[in-house]
Amino acid sequence: MPRNRFGTKHQFLGNSLVTMSVPSAAQLGEFGVDSSWSKFVDVPSHSGGTHRWHILERPGMGADVPTILCIHGNPTWSFLWSRLMSEISPSFRVLAPDQLSMGFSDHIGARPYRDRVGDIHDLVTALNIHGPLWIVAQDWGGAIAMGYATSHRAQVAGLILSNTGIAIPAGRKAPRLIRISASSGLHRLITRTTSLFVRGTGYLPGAGLTKQQRRALVAPYLVQDRRIGVAGFVADVPFDERHPSSFDLASVAAELQKLTIPVRLYWGSKDPVFNDDFADDLMSRFSDVETHRIPGAGHLAVLETSMAPFVESVVRNSTQVISAPSDDDQTCETLWARIDSSTRPDALAISDAAAKTSVTFSEFESRVASFAQSLSDQGVKLGDRVAVLVPPSIDLIAVVYACWRVGAITVIADRGLGIKGLGAAVRSARVQHVVGPQQAVTAARVLRWAPRSQKISLASLSTSRTVSSLAQITVPAPTADDLAAVLFTSGATGPAKGVRYTHRQLGAQRDALQKTYDITANDRFVAAFAPFALFGPALGITTGLADMDVTSPSTLTADALNQACQLIDATMVFASPAALANVVRTAGGSLPAVSTSRLVMSAGAPVPLETLQKMQALCP
After folding, report:
1. Is residue 10 pLDDT above 90, yes or no?
2. Less CB within 10 Å around the terminal CB: N or C of the chain?
């Protein structure tokens, strides 16, 4: 097989003749790219002359639908976006150019950052793109997209950035792989003389690429004269302020906070180049930003995984017309409002059957208020993420509500995930604080679940000064649309995934539960599922915690459920299907305290008909 299976043309670069490859329809077909998308466009350049760009263009069929412009990084080309282009809705027009000196566009030598931003403007102008423009970008393409967005705010409707950066995050060095590739003794060898940098990119840690994908990525760079742009990109990474591109990148970074457009990060978690530190850095620079972290994916997450549903959802949701909120929308009762004990100080708030303890509403409000004050005194503030490693108990519920009151975001994962799964969940959430018993806090430190976080022991909260009521907490309360929690799924269908909830969303769930099941202040419910126990104080009703191993729902016995119901004279029960199945399995006879419950709720998995029928017999 010949080494280069593309047709050729020639151009002079200085005094050197550079062979230019042109992708054939057959070759594109082998790569899974529709050959009708491939075309060349002559583009006048801001730096003089006219250059021929190679682009992949998939026409759209929708009216008034934003154009999506995809910008690759180094050392890739427009093929990087072929999966997105194949899978996204046909209503979108999608454009993916090969940057100059990259892919199959004209190779005109190394291009500094400022010129590459200008190149995108040249292309957009030549293609006569009007109306809203969404830019999806990866690696160096992300920095270029940010530069273009800051200087063309009226046109850019939003950014979707994947494993990229605009600056080296505070407290860390530039990625080791880039430092090695840019070092004076190795730069030319790694990036141009050999294909090590080009070929190695396809083997970076992540979900993995197919042989076909790896072959496609290196196709434009088979000879060293075709790798001048690759080497130039690496050389353009500034490691200090003396670098020619340092000022331009810093100027763009300073402007990002002024952007009001939605910015969404699509982040491969295993990237050794742009790791989570870079995602955190970008999160701090935009006003409307969210991260979608993909466990198992790497630097080339945009090709390793199916990102089309994410892009479609982001673009469509941002273009929907949002009506002005009604008065009801704007008024959202806080999650802790019904903890107020002034009208029923001695009423039972929570009973913990396993610990054989309970608290009144007055005692619970004081515990929440004291914890909140202590968290605030220890530096926990609005928007901070707090990993809550407290076992299911009254203290767990109190810590969660204390975090919510001071505006912190609770990160909660099921202990059933095990040490490995729990650690992965905490690490992925990028928490600033870890709260738990000393044993859990020590484990988090030793296992480096959150190496830069503050460790706060539960004992330090419990021994803090007593605050009798939440009214005494003076720190500003969060708004309804502030993030309240990141709750991780069970991991039963793959890696546990963090789901974000705002205060408004949790409040809406509380209100929906109350309305659907006619819950009143006179109701009392047993929660045999730890997360659901959090809704008890929000509903303002008595909550009972059953004696069971929450990491194994099937450990809930009929006697344990009956005891928990008896302790609070329960009117409602919530348990998972697995828990209910064991209840009916271990029920030797009637369950007097359970039988008086007016409602039994179960969710989270299919509930067998036999289980429902037997539970109905126990709760006539």
Report:
1. no
2. N
